[in-house]
Amino acid sequence: MKVLVTGGAGYIGSVVTRVLIEDGHDVVVLDDLSTGHRDAVPAGVPFVHADIADAGDVLAREPFDGVLHFAAKSLVGESMNRPELYWATNVCGTRHLLDAMRRHSVPRLIFSSTAAVYGEGGPDGIGEDTPPRPTSPYGTSKLAVDLMISDECRAYPLGAVSLRYFNVAGAYGPCGERHRTETHLIPITLDVAAGRRPHLEIYGNDWPTPDGTCMRDYIHVLDLARAHVVALQHARPGHHAIYNLGNGRGFSVREVVAAVERVTGRRVPVTVAPRRPGDPAWLVADDSRARAELNWQPQADLDTIIADAWAFHQQRRHTDGLAGGGTTS
Ligand code: UDP
């Protein structure tokens, strides 16, 4: 298929781009490079440096079979302080994209949604039919887009699939997490293991969980990327499907720290800090719908996710001279 990947210079978008190419698809990447990296886009892939609002210019040039839409703002903490950025980029940006897709008769959309739409979960895992109650503007904005896509599919022949990611981590070859401001648990913990930060701050140890730290469901970015390729084949005109993507198993922050120590063979000193606003205690997927309907299975366990993220981290230390302190990019 001929597809446009918005946000294809970002962490997840770049891995999906790579997997799409390996699968024989013809990919164009659009990214404004506000958080992405030009060199994360595989060599030879046409790259358009533009805002999501300008996606119509690309779609006008030639017929596309689909759009995979990753371009978004995605930090829970930032969204609590700057909600307007999340409504503008995530909601208004996607509105422009849907209008352009309709104008140019693009039949398929795969949308990068999130478990943050659900809000607080529990040990049993969150299914897609759980009533959404987001706890942050990030989650609210992604939920608004999911609702907008459903309306679009009811009125027009668009076939869409929203993939609600739980906690994505790991790396695939040269593509991994390299955010300019890193807020995610696994890359920060690897920085500590590598001696680039003195300790990990655990955001709260009084949550209603077995060890008092938050429970999350970690999924390897490559498993996630493969689900996108499958979803592209599953988009049906006039239908909006929603699937959770996780491993179906929760790990606490302390369990992640222990896994990082095990995999890297390094010590990770921790301190306990106040809770981070917007964080739910539990986010664990019931991903049985994706397994059954997409015939997709995640392959990587937590140690593999961390081992691949660590290999990427070490590789960047050599290529980018990251041996000193500072941020990750
Ligand atoms: N976390 C933490 N210290 C950090 C970064 C994250 O304790 O420096 C916790 C965070 O509160 C959450 C979990 O780790 O419970 C995963 O956070 P992350 O930002 O990686 O992903 P999120 O769940 O927010 O999408």
Automatic annotation (TrEMBL):
Pathway: Carbohydrate metabolism; galactose metabolism. It catalyses: UDP-alpha-D-glucose = UDP-alpha-D-galactose. Pfam families: Epimerase. SUPFAM superfamilies: NAD(P)-binding Rossmann-fold domains (SSF51735). Coiled coil: none annotated. The keyword Isomerase applies. GO terms for biological process: galactose catabolic process via UDP-galactose, Leloir pathway. GO terms for molecular function: UDP-glucose 4-epimerase activity. Residues 3-246 form the NAD-dependent epimerase/dehydratase domain. The keyword Translocase does not apply. It comes from the Bacteria. Its EC number is 5.1.3.2. Keywords: Carbohydrate metabolism, Isomerase, NAD. Its cofactor is NAD(+). Belongs to the NAD(P)-dependent epimerase/dehydratase family. NCBIfam families: galE. Homodimer. This is UDP-glucose 4-epimerase. It comes from Acidothermus cellulolyticus (strain ATCC 43068 / DSM 8971 / 11B).
